[in-house]
């Protein structure tokens, strides 16, 4: 048995121009956990969470009891659970000001463990969400059944079948939606020619049907768009570089991290996207996260679309969104876009809370339905996948993969076919004891019913040299040519070089330069980009380290008679000083310049971490930023470990921002947490 208590108090004095106000919040969290091994294979877990919060005299409460029974044996594995979320009820010390609302969830998951070659799984989930108004505005009920069986005929061949039944009802609006999906598959994976040739493939046949009935009021039915692939990258790639495939983004697991942290300082610029297989209307993207307490308003999501998944157009630099704190997802509005590829990028975040991991991304469309109407949709999808990899020599690799998707969305309708072929050759050879050369060529052919064929040729040459232990040189040349039908669409050439040198013990120099030329033949535009980035780390003494960074970039776009140029630079000096294990100092100064517009941003930062005693930790920071306006930030945090069970934290934050008007904020905080 375990439990936890957290008391958090915040008060902020805010002055903006001639206006002054005081914001306050008092949060109380109570948690109790009970876990008991009923037998060696059966475990029972129960928990109860109670939250009471007062924000500017507005009181809210949340009560969450949860029960779960887990079975883990040689025959079957599974769990049965029930979770209740009650909002608006009276708490221990608070009478809530919000309307009462109840969310109930039941789940059953069972999987066989005794059968050697056959795996059978069954799951059921029911969700009910309703309020207590005389005429309910929220009253939904969802039932989801899923069965699957997978049988391994032999080591290299398996067959399977799955059935999903989903029933969704909006009882308040008198709308019902039924979905049924039947899917069968055949998969193989084997190696030949002394493991030099690897072949894998699959065939999947899916039949799905959706029935919708609408009552006396017109209704926009929410339909999830099935993606072909999830796409992701931790930083925005350069022009002409596609995002990486990321299957975990669309695997249906809303709880497990895909490895992208979007919370905490520096964890921005995460690219999360979908390949929808064809141009599809999407009205909302949902980015699911792990459970965490943070400030969603600190986030900014930039929204992009693409026809080819390589060159992206920005739809919005700051897309509208809301965060559902019950189901842990950002609901990002897509303004009626019909594209094959969509992605979102978090350009700002809550820098104070980390980690917050992404778990899933989903796309939804809203289809308007008239009152007293019904509709039925049926779709048949056939998917063939083939992958071949042949390595006859250590230095030679040949690869080929193809996919074919045939989809018929109505009985008797024309079948839409989408084929993709990728063939490539890769050669890698050691030219000497210190030099390795790699060359690669890949051709991609993409065809789809009713559209022009798309082809692309990719060339890559790479030279990696280490003439001495203290020097590394990496040179890369690449080119991608894209065509639609017989017409050239674009050409992108990139040259990059990285040099890493250990000048002496404690002195590391890194220089990276790049040149890219992108030609868009449809818009008759040529974009040239150059960059030169240098960084030098010096260990001046055992306790003092310095980082010097200087980055420069140039861009030039020629289109018709117009020429647009850009030139920016960034310089930074940072010093790290740790005279002892209990004291840490860091200071930095940076200058960010746009040489075309003349805009300059300077930033000075200083932080101190001091372990006063074994139980007392002091952290403080100060920053000053100038870029036409002026912003100052100062914060102090004192953490006191009273005992193994009790922790006490005091905080003070001051923000001063002079722009068109002067804004000044003083915030005081206190947190007490206990565990038993």
Descriptive report:
By secondary structure, the chain is mainly beta. It contains no helices and 37 strands. It has strands spanning 2-16, 19-37, 42-55, 58-72, 76-87, 101-112, 118-131, 139-154, 157-170, 175-192, 197-214, 219-225, 229-233, 244-245, 271-289, 300-306, 313-316, 321-324, 329-348, 358-369, 373-393, 396-408, 416-430, 435-448, 454-468, 471-484, 487-504, 507-520, 525-539, 544-559, 562-580, 583-594, 600-613, 616-626, 630-641, 646-658, 662-675. The strands form 2 sheets. The chain has a 28-stranded antiparallel beta barrel. Strands 12, 13, 14, 15, 16, 17, 18, 19 and 20 form a 9-stranded antiparallel β-sheet that branches. A hairpin with a 2-residue loop joins β30 (544-559) and β31.
Distance between the termini: 8 Å
Per DSSP E runs of 2 or more residues, the count of β-strands stands at 37
Share of helix, binned: under 10%
Estimate what percentage of residues fall within beta strands.
Answer: over 45%
The backbone outline, from C-alpha atoms, is globular
Radius of gyration: 29 Å
Mean pLDDT: 91
Low-confidence stretches: none
Q: Which class of secondary structure composition applies to the elements?
A: mainly beta
Total count of helical runs of at least 4 residues: 0
The biggest sheet amounts to: 28 strands, antiparallel, barrel
């Amino acid at each position: 048995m375990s439990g936890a208590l957290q008391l958090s108090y915040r008060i902020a004095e805010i002055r903006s121009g001639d206006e002054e106000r005081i914001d306050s919040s008092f949060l109380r969290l109570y948690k109790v956990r009970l876990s008991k091994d009923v037998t060696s294979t059966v475990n029972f877990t129960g928990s109860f969470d109670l939250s009471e919060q007062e924000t500017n005299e507005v009181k809210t409460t949340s009560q969450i009891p949860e029960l779960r029974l887990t079975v883990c044996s040689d025959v079957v594995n599974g769990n049965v659970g029930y979770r209740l979320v009650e909002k608006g009820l009276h708490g221990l010390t608070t009478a809530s000001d919000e309307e009462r609302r109840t969310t109930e969830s039941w789940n059953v998951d069972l999987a066989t463990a005794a059968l050697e070659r056959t795996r059978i799984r069954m799951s059921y989930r029911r969700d009910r969400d309703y309020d207590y108004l005389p005429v309910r505005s929220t009253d939904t009920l969802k039932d989801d059944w899923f069965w699957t069986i997978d049988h391994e005929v032999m080591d290299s061949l398996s067959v399977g079948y799955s059935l999903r039944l989903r029933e969704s009802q909006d009882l308040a609006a008198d709308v019902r939606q039924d979905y049924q999906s039947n899917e069968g598959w055949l998969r193989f994976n084997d190696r030949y020619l002394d493991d030099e040739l690897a072949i894998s493939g699959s065939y999947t046949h899916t039949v799905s049907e959706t029935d919708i009935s609408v009552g006396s009021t017109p209704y926009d039915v929410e339909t999830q768009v099935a993606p072909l692939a999830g796409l992701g990258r931790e930083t925005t790639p350069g022009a002409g570089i596609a995002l990486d495939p990321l299957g975990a983004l669309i695997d249906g697991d809303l709880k497990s991290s895909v490895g992208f942290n979007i919370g905490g300082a520096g964890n921005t610029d995460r690219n999360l996207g979908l390949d929808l297989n064809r141009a599809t209307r999407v009205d909302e993207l949902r980015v699911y996260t792990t459970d965490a307490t943070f400030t969603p308003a600190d986030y900014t999501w930039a929204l992009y679309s693409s026809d080819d998944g390589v060159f992206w157009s920005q739809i919005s630099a700051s897309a509208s969104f809301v965060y559902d704190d019950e189901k842990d997802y950002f609901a990002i509005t897509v303004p009626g876009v019909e594209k094959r590829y969509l992605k979102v990028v978090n350009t700002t975040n809550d820098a104070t809370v980390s980690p917050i991991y992404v778990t899933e991304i989903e796309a939804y469309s809203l289809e308007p339905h008239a009152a007293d109407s019904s509709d039925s949709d049926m779709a048949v999808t056939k998917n063939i996948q083939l992958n071949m990899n042949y390595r006859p020599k250590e230095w030679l690799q040949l690869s080929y993969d193809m996919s074919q998707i045939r989809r018929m969305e109505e009985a008797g309708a024309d079948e839409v076919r989408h084929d993709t072929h990728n063939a490539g050759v890769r050669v890698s050879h050691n030219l000497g004891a210190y030099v390795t050369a790699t060359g690669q060529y890949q051709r991609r052919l993409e065809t789809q019913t009713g559209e022009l064929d798309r082809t692309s040729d990719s060339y890559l040459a790479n030279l990696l040299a280490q003439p001495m232990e203290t020097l590394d040189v990496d040179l890369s040349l690449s080119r991608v040519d894209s065509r639609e039908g017989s017409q050239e669409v674009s050409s992108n050439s990139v040259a990059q070089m990285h040099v890493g040198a250990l000048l002496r013990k404690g002195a590391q120099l890194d220089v990276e330069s790049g040149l890219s030329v992108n030609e868009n033949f449809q818009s008759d535009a040529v974009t040239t980009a150059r960059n030169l980035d240098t960084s030098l780390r010096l260990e001046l003494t055992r306790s003092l380290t310095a980082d010097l960074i200087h980055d420069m970039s140039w861009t030039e776009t020629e289109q018709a008679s117009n020429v647009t140029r850009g030139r920016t630079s960034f310089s930074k000096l940072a010093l790290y000083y740790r005279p002892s294990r209990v004291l840490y100092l860091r200071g930095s100064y940076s200058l960010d310049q746009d040489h075309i517009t003349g805009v300059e941003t300077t930033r000075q930062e200083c932080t101190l971490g001091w372990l006063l005693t074994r139980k007392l930790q002091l952290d403080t920071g100060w920053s000053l930023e100038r870029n036409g306006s002026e912003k100052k930030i100062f914060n102090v945090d004192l953490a006191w470990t009273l005992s193994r069970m009790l922790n006490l934290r005091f905080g003070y934050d001051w923000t001063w921002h002079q722009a068109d008007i002067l804004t000044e904020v003083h915030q005081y905080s206190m947190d007490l947490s206990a565990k038993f």
